[in-house]
Recover the amino acids of this structure.
């Protein structure tokens, strides 16, 4: 017991001597401040060509989303797609993987997945499947533009993907009426 007291007193005296002698302690470096940038959610706007009187849909930025610069490209893209799906597509499942090719540029692979229970159109209710959003000339064009422009971020000037490929139910997007999501779509 006496030894314990002596040890404790010695520790106290040593600690006081260290603090009196001005022993330098390591200073904690403050964390670097996180910086952000803005990515965009697109919608479409119908415009009429004055010469041909043809009405067409053009991309239009609807809102911006703040992203931390510390996030990977894939994480940023998946956050963007989650917001896009919740905002325009009834929360349907969409995800992305980003691969880097031999030229050191990034290609996004976008996967549109139907919910469980989907067996055919209208099998789970209106606008509860990706299939429903691609129906009709206006719906297919709108959905294609919103997905393509939001993924490619053509108005964003920072480092981003070079191109995108779209997949439906795990397979490359095929030829659908009014939908232009086949093959590699460049930024």
């Amino acid at each position: 017991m006496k030894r314990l007291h002596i040890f404790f007193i010695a520790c106290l005296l040593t600690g006081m001597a260290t603090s009196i002698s001005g022993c330098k302690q390591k200073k904690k470096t403050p964390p670097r401040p996180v910086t952000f940038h803005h990515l965009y959610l697109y919608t479409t706007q119908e415009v009429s060509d004055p010469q041909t009187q043809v009405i067409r849909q053009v991309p239009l930025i609807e809102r911006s989303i703040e992203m931390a610069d510390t996030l990977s490209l894939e994480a940023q893209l998946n956050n963007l797609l989650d917001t896009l799906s919740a905002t325009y597509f009834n929360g349907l499942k969409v995800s992305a993987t980003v691969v880097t090719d031999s030229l050191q540029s990034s290609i996004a692979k976008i996967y549109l997945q139907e919910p469980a229970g989907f067996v055919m159109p209208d099998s789970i209710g209106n606008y509860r499947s990706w299939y429903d959003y691609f129906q009709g000339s206006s719906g297919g064009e709108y959905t294609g533009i919103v997905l393509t422009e939001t993924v490619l971020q053509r108005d964003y000037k920072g480092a981003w993907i070079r191109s995108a490929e779209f997949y439906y139910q795990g397979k490359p997007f095929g030829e659908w009426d009014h939908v232009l999501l086949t093959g590699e779509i460049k930024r």
Notes: Residues 2-20 form the longest helix (19 residues). The chain has one domain: 37-186. The longest strand covers residues 55-68. Residues 16-21 have pLDDT under 50 and may be disordered.
